[in-house]
Amino acid sequence: MFSQQLALSVFSAGSLRTTITQIKSQLEQLSQRPITFTFGPAGLLSKNIQSGIHCDLFLSANMVHPQHLHSMTTMKNIMPFCHNSLCLTIARRHYQPHKTWLDYVSDPTLLLATSTPNCDPSGDYTWQLFDKIAQHNKPLSDYLKKTAQPLVGGINTLTIPTGYTAASFLIQHHNIDMFIGYSHYQSILARDPELMVIPIPAQDNIYATYGLAYNDDIALPIVNYLLSTSGQHYLQQAGFSSVHQTME
């Protein structure tokens, strides 16, 4: 057993919870320290770090928060470590094979939920997606920004129970018809008979870059693993894209 006094504090975006906790023992062996994980929306975690709460390694779902911490000299080292994108999940009862993702989000009879912008990068990416829609359909973009409900990932939003994704919880228990969230959840969502994942084509999608931040060498064994061939392969198995991969 490792000494608790030497515990390594890792703040991590909630979208990495399952992926990173599954290799906790391996990461502890690499670092030769016990690891304490704190999961949550990356924007809120960044604010906690700024307030002075100790963090040895910050795993963010974007590069904005690590870059901000770096600009404040709160974190000395930052770098990207994987990529993600977005997908639309709908209640299977609404599925029609001929419809595209834009057909669903354009339907005024369907309620759309998202994560919370400015608190959770998933929400920020979704609003970037709406901005992208504005390039060819500004009325639809304006409509989505007005009607989409940011129900998770904020300060006082719903807490997702263990065993659910945000999409599955909101659609099954909160009368939501569809949810825009991260693509790496697709394999989990596809196993749920009540849900249907609708891909968002690459040309319409948002390329999400995950970044890490750290100060001292205490975090280096984990950083090196995540950037290694083995670490990148593991992240790809979990549904993320390699940091070396570009969006097609």
TrEMBL record:
Checking Pfam families in the record gives: SBP_bac_11
Naturally occurring in which organism (per UniProt) = Photobacterium toruni
| Chain ranges passing through the membrane | none
Q: Which SUPFAM superfamilies match?
A: Periplasmic binding protein-like II (SSF53850)
Write the protein's name: Substrate-binding domain-containing protein
Which segment of the chain is annotated as a signal peptide?
none
Q: Lineage of the native species?
A: Bacteria, Pseudomonadati, Pseudomonadota, Gammaproteobacteria, Vibrionales
